[in-house]
Design a protein that fits this description.
mainly alpha; 97% helix; 178 residues; elongated
């Protein structure tokens, strides 16, 4: 019995020690997980800060570039305005010259149109005359061809009549063979 009680006490101590060890292991694992999570969050925070600093530097560079561009545009605009005023004066002179040239061109075109119209009317009258002569020539040729055919037919008829008459005067007179 004393041995049993002794063993029971040792078993209880062993179990208690085991539970304490398990609890320590649980606490250790929990601590490890927390530390790992903390390190993970620290790394993410570092990355976020680094990204933020890069973004700020890019923003600074962008603003610097924008200011330079604005200055460039301002100077360019001023030069353009001066150039525009110069060009406006030149354009006014060019327009004046152009209007004079246009008026001269208008007079020239009017003269050209009149001449063209004269030539056109002359050509049209010539064409009408040519068509009239062509029609008359066609009628003359047609009349001539009809005359040729008629004379040919008359010759053939005369020849045939002559042949028939030679064969027999009576038949020819009565028109039996014809």
């Amino acid at each position: 019995r004393q041995g049993d009680r002794q063993r029971d006490r040792e078993t209880d101590r062993d179990r208690q020690t085991e539970r304490q060890t398990e609890r320590q292991g649980d606490r250790q694992r929990q601590t490890d997980r927390q530390r790992q999570g903390d390190r993970q969050r620290d790394r993410e925070t570092d990355r976020d800060r680094q990204t933020e600093r890069q973004t700020e530097r890019q923003g600074d560079r962008q603003r610097q570039t924008d200011r330079q561009r604005q200055g460039d545009r301002q100077r360019r605009t001023e030069r353009q305005r001066q150039g525009d005023r110069q060009r406006d004066r030149e354009t006014d002179r060019d327009r004046q010259t152009e209007r004079q040239t246009e008026r001269q061109g208008d007079r020239q075109r009017q003269t050209d149109r009149q001449r063209q119209g004269d030539r056109q009317r002359r050509t049209e009258r010539q064409r009408q005359g040519d068509r009239q002569r062509d029609r008359e020539t066609d009628r003359d040729r047609q009349t001539e061809r009809q005359g040729d055919r008629q004379r040919q037919t008359d010759r053939e008829t005369d020849i045939l009549a002559g042949i028939l008459c030679i064969r027999g005067i009576n038949h020819c007179l009565h028109g039996d063979l014809i």
